[in-house]
UniProtKB/TrEMBL annotation, chain B:
It comes from the Bacteria. This is ABC transporter permease. Residues 93-286 form the ABC transmembrane type-1 domain. Belongs to the binding-protein-dependent transport system permease family. The keyword Transit peptide does not apply. Keywords: Cell membrane, Membrane, Transmembrane, Transmembrane helix, Transport. Signal peptide: none annotated. The chain crosses the membrane at residues 32-51, 95-120, 132-150, 156-175, 206-228, 264-289. One of its GO terms (cellular component) is plasma membrane.
């Protein structure tokens, strides 16, 4: 879902500001420190959210089945719900340090197991979709910037903006309707596929087509627009004029100078907007029943499986924060301008 | 004859700047098209109670067939309860646009306040505020919005809050950057030297200079807020009142009622197309406005 | 294990990267077509597989823990019970137990277990296994998670020899021949340190199939159990495939990816009518749907709780509300006619116990009459046409609804509309299922959607309306339904529980339903049909339970899956009470009808979408053209 961030080049290019003074080490340490603070915020938020959500968990575990008060009291004690709040928080922290996110109320298994099981489908979907979207966006952005104002530029920018404007789930629904019968409409793999690796991999790839296309369609626009605008900016730069004056052909100028420089903000964007891609994964996974973390999050909310919800939110947000710190550090290492200062 | 007061002068200057801006804007066809579309859609939304009868939204009064295809009486067919899809789409624009505007105003207001404060005050306030901003910028806003709307009671207010509270960081960063640029200008220093307090500097100098950018950002953000509304509604967190449909709740009904399976394109297409058109219109307007304000981006 | 998974993930990523763009580009149409062919080839090979689409996730496959519909449906085919409800009319018959007798005081039950029973791994299945299972539940609280209530009144369980099981209870227990407890093998489970742990696969079982593989949120695989005492099923494998989205399951059925699916909506059911390869089954359901009207919730000791509108304590108001709900229209609009009109509390599927109001008891829908009743009862109309309660406050009621449940989503607006016409303002509040449950249990509602699946023995649903079933002071400890607490009703409840003459008991149960109708603390909305569909090119049919108008899936037993008959393998078996099989009795199924091509709509939809894209693209073309002219420097 391209939900909240606007598709304007300025809003999109949120390149980390170059560090003023201080060495690379200090920069890296600052970034890591910032990341740690964010992680701590996520952990506290996770706990608060989990506490603020009203509802008697124990009651909901039994509804629909006969249960005696004794049974319920037992369950309550087992879940530690009868302790004071600060004790529950300390418990939560302690267990979190040991990789224990509690036990799912609905599934009766450790949340960590549940999340690990759902992690790979999401990594696969988000990873492949991001790679394709970045590739597509870079290619289209480069072409349209180089031929600014051409029919190609106009059409590809128009299509990108249109796709960007549509809700992800609607696009998914249309795809479902349009490709009826061509592709599997749900799940990760058929249950009767032979267990050998090749068949399984092909089957997963087959199942992945529709969700990947949906996700790519909605997210590639931002990469294209940013690539286009940063390339346009580079093309106006003095050094390109110099390069041309030196007698380099346009094609060489583009490939050797403009593109590599314009690439940087776009690639950084990949990490910065990972949170957005993950948000897109929630609706995509919902529409195509893709058994990933997004679907797990939504289902946990739907049935109010609080520990599970807490776990998915902490894991999703934590992963995005870590990726961003990595992106910041990478940026520092990669950008010649920053490195030189 | 007295000389015009400084205030009048300022207004006259602003008027001239506005006129020049409008000429710039009008020279961009996509911006004009976007604006035209928006005017038409907003007018339709406002006039809906005048040109149609809200009673048609009441399921107990519905006379159409169950998910019947378009015919003379129902140009866009009917939904599951036999209501006119055309009527629903028209009325839905009211909630969708309302949520889009109000949520954006909320998010821009938060973003502006935080952005200006972060830029205006020294290191610690700035560092603290930007840390919070980065935090909100990074974590998946939709997931947070889902969580918020689940905690609160379902309704338009909740949706607005959920979107507004999670979408302000990009505005905050933009405003902060702009404020830093402005505060570096000599006249701010002069104002401070002349004894202008924080409040004076912010309201008299920084805010007016930042507002145009904020305005552009608002235009661009409304589209996003409308898409966010449709997503939250689709996930079942929208306003449940059948008399107050939105495009998102319509799509949710279409999804739950198996419109895809039944091939009820008349039920599936109108709300989605409406969203796409409105969002595009806002985007086109916003981009044109941006080109007016930011000569570097100016393409004409 | 984990590193293998990582390797798999990486390899998949790479292969998907290679195939992804290929398939995604519009030119490469060949790629997707390869797969269906491969599937057909696969289908020609043995083994025969029954692939069932389910729309509810498996919560757990631990028989002590699982409580969801899908989980119990799977476990019912994996673990046999002492007794099972028969196929014909859902009466308890022996399964692992061959026979049983009761002592004079109804406190001692002696079950005779069939001789020579074997677990799927070849170990003998004896009374010791049953005793171990029950005793485990008596001693380990975790083992009581799912079915604890059945053993709550057990005094002791003994297995004096391999075929004899003696259960002593503290009080007479009516449910002794319908203990819904899967019996587990002692030689496996006694070695487990944590009874709640996820079981190991393949799971040693005693039912017609055993569970061999479980992929969370994807599928559960079962294979035929050679040692099932009734004989090996005709089908080699049984796969339960999870679809979060019911439409996707229907598409999968159309594409031949699965063979059987249930819980269809009327729209889905109708959309399958045009498919010549699909057989539809419209079955009676054991479920009733209702609207609760909070008559003043209170705890078990009578302390008022919750925040229900006090005006609803007035039976006149409740009666008027019940009169203003048009259940006939709801059956039409909500279920598109695939349901039965409201009558009594016990669904009509249970013919003996079902009751239907007659004459004056019947509340015909009439808005005029409801208005007149309210006028008469003194509810004046205030401003905005909203009536005022006795204290002069406008009648604003909340209606709690389950989000994403079709009946609630569709019926909510209707009820709001009708009640608005009689001057009552209703706000529909859709929330998650759990929130509805919590709010209703705490009495925090005015009106609420509810519904229960009744058992062949009506005891459980009847108990929901008793005083004793109200919650304790903390709002827990009971599963109240409408918070009706009526001495007379409670007396009748106790009476029916101790009545061993079936005819007399039926009379009492009907009397109780009459009372429920009178008190108007709940309005029965109707009884939804269970809509199921299967592919007749892969399956001949399935035994239905009950035999007339019955269901294939979610049975109170294993008949449907056990008797699944692959296409071309002869008539569908019908199971007799003594465990024998009658062949030939054609499974009652409504056949495919009507041919309507729904694809035209889809094509149009796609064309529409493309047009929009082109249109908008055109706008940008126009915009760009202007730009080029001015771009030159």
């Amino acid at each position: 879902m391209s939900d909240i961030i606007t598709p304007t080049e300025d809003a999109l290019v949120e390149v980390p500001p170059p560090a003023r003074g201080g060495g690379t080490l200090r920069y890296v340490l600052t970034k890591i420190g910032g990341g740690l603070v964010s992680l701590a915020l996520v952990i506290v938020l996770g706990f608060l959210l989990f506490r603020v959500l009203p509802g008697d968990v124990v009651q909901s575990m039994f509804r629909g089945r006969p249960a005696t008060p004794e049974l319920m009291a037992e369950a309550e004690a087992r879940l530690g719900l009868n302790k004071p709040l600060y004790e529950q928080f300390l418990d939560y922290l302690w267990r979190l340090l040991h990789g224990d996110l509690g036990e799912s109320y609905v599934f009766n298994v450790p949340v960590t197991d549940k999340i690990l099981e759902r992690l790979w489908p999401t990594v696969l979907l988000v990873g492949v979709a991001t790679l394709i979207a970045v590739g597509l966006g870079l290619w289209l952005g480069t072409r349209s910037a180089w031929r600014r104002g051409s029919r190609f530029d106009r059409i590809s920018t128009g299509v990108a903006l249109t796709l960007w404007s549509t809700p992800t789930f609607w696009l998914g629904m249309l795809l479902l309707a349009a490709t009826s019968g061509l592709f599997p409409t749900a799940g990760l793999v058929y249950s009767d596929t032979p267990p050998d690796f090749l068949s399984q991999a092909l089957d997963v790839a087959h199942h992945m087509v529709l969700p990947t296309v949906t996700l790519v369609a909605v997210i590639y626009a931002q990469y294209q627009l940013v690539m286009r605008s940063s390339l346009l900016e580079e093309m106006d730069a003095d050094y390109l004029t110099t390069a041309r004056a030196k007698g380099l052909r346009d094609d060489q100028v583009r490939r050797r100078h403009a593109v590599p420089n314009a690439l940087l903000p776009t690639v950084t964007l990949v990490f910065l907007h990972l949170g957005m891609v993950i948000a897109g994964a929630v609706t995509t996974e919902t529409v195509f029943s893709w058994p990933g973390l997004g679907l797990l999050t939504y289902d946990a909310l739907r049935v109010r499986d609080l520990p599970l919800l807490q776990g998915t939110i902490v894991v999703l947000a934590g992963a995005v924060i870590i990726m961003n710190v990595l992106a910041d550090v990478l940026y520092r290492v990669l950008d010649p301008r920053v490195r030189a200062s | 004859m007295t000389a015009p007061s400084p205030r009048a002068l300022a207004w006259r200057r602003r008027g001239a700047a506005f006129a020049a801006g409008w000429r710039q804007f009008a020279s961009q066809r996509s911006g004009l098209v976007g604006l035209g579309l928006l005017v038409v859609i907003v007018l339709l939304a406002i006039l809906a109670p005048v040109i149609t009868d809200q009673g048609g939204l009441d399921v107990t009064e519905a006379t159409g067939g169950t998910m019947a295809p378009p015919d003379g009486e129902y140009p866009l067919g009917t939904d599951r309860s036999g209501r006119s899809v055309l009527l629903l789409t028209l009325w839905s624009s009211r909630v969708s646009l309302l949520v889009g505007f109000v949520a954006t105003l909320l998010s821009i207001a938060i973003g502006t306040v935080i952005g200006i404060l972060a830029a205006h005050y020294g290191r610690w306030v700035s560092a603290g505020l930007m840390r919070v901003t980065d935090f909100f910028l990074v974590i998946p806003s939709l997931v947070l919005a889902i969580a918020l709307s689940t905690v609160m009671e379902r309704g338009i207010g909740t949706i607005i809050l959920a979107i507004g509270l999670t979408s302000w960081p990009s505005a905050a960063r933009l405003v902060r950057a702009q404020t830093l640029t402005i505060e570096a200008r000599p006249y701010i220093e002069r104002s401070k030297a002349l004894g202008g307090g924080h409040l004076h500097v912010i309201t008299k100098h920084v805010l007016p200079a930042v507002l145009p950018l904020v305005f552009v950002n608002t235009t661009l953000a409304v589209g996003s807020a409308i898409v966010a509304e449709s997503t939250l509604s689709f996930l079942g967190l929208g306003d449940p009142d059948p008399m107050r449909p939105s495009w998102g709740t319509m799509l949710r009904s279409a999804w739950l009622d198996s419109a895809v399976l039944a091939g009820a394109w008349w039920y599936l297409l109108p709300p989605g197309i409406a969203i796409a058109i409105v969002v595009l219109a806002f985007t086109m307007c916003g981009r044109a406005l941006e080109a007016v304000l930011n000569p570097r981006l100016r393409e004409g | 294990m984990r590193s293998r998974r990582v390797a798999l993930g990486i390899a998949l990523l790479v292969s998907a990267l290679v195939t992804g763009p290929l398939v995604a580009s519009p030119g490469a149409v060949a790629a997707p077509e390869a797969a269906p062919n491969a599937k057909i080839e696969r289908a020609n090979q043995a083994p025969t597989i029954l692939k069932v689409g389910v729309t509810q996730e498996v919560d757990s496959l631990n028989p002590f823990i699982s409580i969801t519909r899908t989980g119990t449906d799977i476990l019912r085919t994996a673990f046999d019970f002492l007794t099972v409800y028969n196929q014909e009319e859902q009466k308890p018959i022996g399964s692992l137990a061959e026979s049983w007798e009761t002592s004079e005081d109804k406190l001692t039950w002696t079950f005779t277990i069939r001789p020579d029973l074997r677990w799927s791994d070849g170990e003998p299945l004896t009374a010791k296994d049953v005793a171990w299972t029950f005793n485990k539940m008596l001693t380990d609280e975790v083992a009581r998670t799912a079915n604890g209530s059945y053993v709550a009144q057990f005094e002791s369980v003994d297995a004096p020899d391999e075929t004899t099981l003696v259960v002593k209870t503290k009080v007479p227990q009516a449910t002794m021949t319908s203990l819904d407890i899967p019996i587990v093998p002692e030689h496996i489970w006694s070695k487990m340190s944590d009874i709640s742990a996820a079981p190991e696969y393949p799971m040693v079982g005693s039912g017609p199939y055993i569970i061999t593989e479980f992929k969370e949120a994807q599928f559960t695989k079962m294979v035929a159990n050679n040692n099932f005492w009734r004989g090996k099923p005709k089908v080699d494998e049984l796969h339960f495939i999870y679809y979060r989205n019911a439409d996707a399951a229907v598409t999968a059925l159309q594409n031949g990816e699965i063979d059987l699916v249930n819980k269809l909506t009327p729209q889905q059911f109708d959309s399958l009518k045009s498919d010549p390869n699909i057989v539809l089954n419209q079955a009676q359901n054991r479920r009733f749907d209702e609207i609760l009207i909070n008559p003043g919730a209170a705890t078990a000791d009578g302390t008022p709780i919750g925040d229900g509108n006090p005006a609803l304590k007035d039976i006149k108001l409740r009666e008027a509300i019940a009169t203003a709900i048009d259940t006939k229209t709801l059956v039409e609009r909500v279920w598109s006619g695939y349901g039965e009109e409201a009558a009594g509390y016990i669904p009509p599927m249970f013919k003996d116990f079902a009751w239907s109001p007659s004459g004056d008891q019947k509340r015909e829908f009439s808005l005029e009459k409801a208005n007149a009743m309210l006028d008469e009862a003194g509810y004046r109309k205030g401003p905005d046409n909203v009536r005022l309660d006795k204290e002069g406050k406008p009648l604003n009621l909340r209606l709690l609804a389950h989000a994403e449940r079709t009946i609630d989503e569709v019926a909510g607006p209707f009820i709001k509309g009708w009640l608005a016409d009689v001057g009552i303002n209703v706000t529909v509040q859709p929330v998650s299922d759990t929130q509805v449950n919590e709010a209703t249990t705490r009495g925090e509602f005015d009106l609420a959607f509810s519904g229960w699946s009744a058992n062949p023995d009506p005891d459980y649903v009847l108990s929901l309306q008793t005083c004793a079933n109200r919650p304790n002071a903390q709002g827990t400890g009971g599963t109240p339904d409408s918070f009706l607490c009526d001495e007379e009703y409670d007396a009748l409840y106790t009476q029916q529980l101790q009545e061993f003459d079936r005819a007399k008991r039926i009379e009492i149960v009907k009397q109780m339903q009459e009372m429920l109708n009178e008190k108007a603390t709940l309005v029965i909305l109707g009884y939804e049909n269970a809509l199921e569909a299967y592919r007749k090119d892969s399956f001949e049919g399935f035994p239905l339970q009950p035999r007339e108008n019955g269901v294939i899936m979610n049975q109170q037993g294993y008949w449907g899956y056990y008797g699944a008959t692959p296409a071309g393998e002869g008539p569908v078996p019908q199971f007799n009470d003594d465990g024998t099989i009658t062949d030939g009795g054609d499974a009652q199924t409504s056949d495919a009808a009507a041919e309507e091509d729904s694809n035209t709509g889809l094509v149009l939809a796609i064309v529409g979408g493309v047009i929009v894209v082109l249109l908008v693209g055109g706008l940008f073309v126009a915009r760009g053209r202007r730009k080029t002219a001015e771009d030159r420097e």
